[in-house]
Every structure is written in C-alpha cells, then in structure tokens.
Design goal:
Elements: E1 24-31, E2 40-47, E3 59-61, H1 64-77
Antiparallel strand pairs: 1-2, 1-3
Length: 81
C-alpha cells in the first residue's frame, strides 16, 4: 500500500503538487533581543523543506502572495500563526 502525503496552503487551501516550486514555510519563534528582556514573537519564513514541513508549528504557503497575506494577518491580529 502506498502512502500519499498532502500539504495544503494555510491561506488559500491550494494542494501542493510534486512540481510545485514556490512553496514556503512559516512559523513563530520567540526571541529576546537582550539577555534580560522577555521573549517576543517573531514570524519566520523559509523556502520549502520537506523535513521541516512535518513540524506541527509550521504553516505551509503556496507562494509569495499567501506568505504576504499570512504576514499581514499576523501583524494586524497580534496573535500567533
């Protein structure tokens, strides 16, 4: 029996195909710019990586437009992705 894995864009719902090249991953990290400061959320983006795509915190994005939409939502809602 073959195993099929399906990834969907978190913004538009598009399904990733084998030929898709412009997919991105996004997640929130908490960073502290100074040793004594409390951590603050930071939205991170990187090109598609199959290993990282399996992490529960990672969001899948089908391209720049959906990445920009996710960033805009994150910035205006002040909620984590």
């Amino acid at each position: 029996m073959a195993f099929t894995e399906t990834f969907r864009c978190e913004v538009c719902g598009k399904v990733k195909s084998e030929e898709s090249e412009d997919w991105w991953l996004a997640w929130v990290e908490h960073v502290s710019p100074m040793p004594d400061a409390s951590p603050m959320p930071q939205l991170r983006f990187m090109p598609w990586d199959m290993l990282l795509s399996h992490h529960a915190e990672v969001r899948h994005l089908c391209g720049a437009r959906c990445a920009q939409t996710l960033m805009n939502r994150w910035m205006t809602n002040s909620e984590e992705v």
